Amino acid sequence: AKDNKLKLKQLTENIRKLEEELDKDPSQDILEQYTIDKHELECIHESYTAGAMLRSKAQWVEQGEKNTQYF
Predict the structure, then answer these.
(1) Cβ 18 vs Cβ 39: under 8 Å
(2) Measured on CA atoms in the order 49, 55, 61, 67, is the torsion positive or negative?
(3) Which of 12, 54, 62, 70 is 20 to 30 A off residue 39, Cα-Cα?
(4) Taking CA 22 as the corner, what is the angle to CA 38 and CA 10, rounded to the nearest 5 degrees?
């Protein structure tokens, strides 16, 4: 988990720097690295989302659905 958080922070910072470099000098190499880093960042976000959904389902199975006082 700490590795993913560190990787997420590094990717975010690297993407920010690459965006600045692209503004100054739009080269193919910088664009390729930007695309690779952006894709890797999206994959990390997807894994966080999938994990949250899985934990949510597990909690619902353990605790069940609770009726409100409305009914």
Answers:
(1) no
(2) negative
(3) 54
(4) 40
Question: Quick check: 34 and 12 in contact, CB under 8 A?
Answer: no
Query: Could you tell me which residues come within 8 angstroms of residue 10 by beta carbon, excluding any fewer than 6 positions away?
Result: none
Please state, in angstroms and rounded to a whole number, the distance separating the CA atoms of residues 9 and 37. 12
pLDDT in tens, 31-70: 999 999 999 999 988 988 888 888 887 777 677 766 666 6
Residue 31's CB is within 10 A of a number of other CB atoms, namely 13
Q: Which two tokens stand for residue 47?
A: 């894994």
Closest CA to 21 of 3, 33, 10: 33
